[in-house]
Every structure is written in C-alpha cells, then in structure tokens.
Specification:
The protein is of the alpha+beta class. The protein contains one helix and eleven strands. The strands form three sheets. Strands 2, 5, 6, 9, 10 and 11 form a six-stranded mixed beta sheet that branches. A three-stranded antiparallel beta sheet has the order 1-3-8, with no helix packed on it. A two-stranded antiparallel ribbon has the order 4-7. The protein is elongated and about 110 Å long.
C-alpha cells in the first residue's frame, strides 16, 4: 500500500481524509431518501370505515334537513289556507263522506237540533223550463245526530193554491245519511223542471205534464222530523 508524499494514505487507505464511507455508490442510503411507505391493510380498513361513517352521517344530515324543509312548507301552506279562508270547517263536503253506520246509540236529529233553509236561484221561470232550488241543513244541537239528507228524506214540496204539484220524494232515492255535529251544514241543489208529479214514480221527469203559468210555493222539510220545515219561498212560472 503506497503513501502520499505528504504522509497521508491514498484513496484505498483506511481512515484517511479521502472519500467518506457510505457516500459512494456502494455505501448505505441516507435516512429519508427512500420511497414513502404504503399504508398497511389494517390502516386501509380504518380509512375505509371512516369514509363510510362520514358518508352515512352526511346522508342523515341531508335527510333531516329535507324533512324539516318539507314540514315547514306544509305548515306554511296550512297557515296560508286559513288566512285565505279555505279552511271552512262549518260547511262539510258530505257528498264525498262515507255513509255512517246507524248505531243504536246515535239518535235521529229532531226539530230542536236542525234548521232548514230554502232559496231559489231565480224568482221566475218560463213554462216548461227548469229552476234550481238550494236546500241547506244546519245542525244547531249540542250532540251528534243522524239526518237523512237524500231526496226522499229531505223533501222539497211545491204547491199552488194549497195543492201539491211536485215532491222530490216521488221516487225512491239513494240513501244519504249524515252524522252531523253542532255547526255542521249540508248544502244541496234540487232541480225542478216545472213538471207535475203523480202518485206513481216516473223516472223520466220530462215525460210528465208541465205546470201552467202561476204562483208556486216551495217548502223544505224532513220526513223523519215533520216539524222541521223551512220558510216558504214563492216563485212565478211565466
């Protein structure tokens, strides 16, 4: 092994001030110069579970937010309907209500429970024409009761000179029983085609003879409570 003229070892010497060990191509790699370590399977599973939990929490928050907005919208709509007068609970749409089962504990309405009103759409009608009458039943009692509001139970009678010329119950009518409470109303339109009824039922009302010109009076009554009557309404057939 040769020595440098200055007394130092050459490149192949040990412990000389030459090239440091490990810095050359064959030495150990410096710390931190290697590639980034990949997460283990356990760590990947933890990350996956965290993502699932975060996603589920986000869905729950969106659901709660959507339900809250929907509820607020429904509540606001109800308030608007009340403000506009659309929620009138005193007038009931009885045509779409199911027929109540007549129980022994439910009584029929009487004169003290019920008020009848009758109005005519027009005060005059031509011979052979038709006239619409508006029949209103109002329950004024304190307890619930049953009313037969069919054309056979709530009867419109038209008279002239004290004689009956037409009745709405001349033919059997489909049952229409209403269970009414205090303040309930039922409004129904009855059409009279200025014909005369007979003792027998005639389904084709147009085949009946027509009344003559004159003064006629309409009255509304309840068949099961004969004392319940409306004020008479006078019209003219011209």
């Amino acid at each position: 092994m040769g020595t440098h003229p200055n007394g130092t070892y050459g490149a192949g010497g040990v412990g000389g001030p030459g090239v440091s060990r490990g810095s050359g191509p064959g030495g150990a790699r410096p710390r931190g110069s290697g590639k980034k370590r990949r997460p283990s399977k356990r760590q990947r599973a933890i990350y996956r579970r965290r993502r699932i939990v975060v996603g589920a929490a986000a869905l729950v928050v969106l659901f709660v937010l959507g339900f809250t907005l929907y509820s607020l919208g429904r509540g606001a709509g109800a308030v608007v309907n009340v403000a506009l007068g659309n929620a009138d609970h005193s007038v009931l749409e009885r045509d779409t209500s199911p027929e109540p089962h007549h129980s022994a504990s439910v009584r029929n309405c009487s004169a003290k429970d019920t008020r009848l009103e009758l109005t005519a759409k027009t005060a005059t009608v031509s011979v052979g024409g038709s006239l619409d009458w508006v029949a209103t039943i109002t329950h004024e009692g304190s307890g619930s009761c049953l009313i037969d509001a069919s054309d056979s139970g709530r009867v419109l009678t038209i008279t002239s000179g004290g004689k009956t010329v037409w009745r709405s119950d001349s033919c059997p009518a489909e049952s229409r029983s209403l269970l009414m409470a205090k303040g309930d109303k039922d409004v129904k339109t009855i059409t009279w085609n200025t014909s005369r009824t007979t003792d027998e039922c005639v389904q084709d009302q147009d085949s009946l003879s027509k009344v003559d010109r004159g003064t006629y009076v309409g009255v509304l009554s309840l068949k099961k409570a004969p004392k319940v009557k409306s004020q008479p309404v006078t019209i003219e057939v011209q």
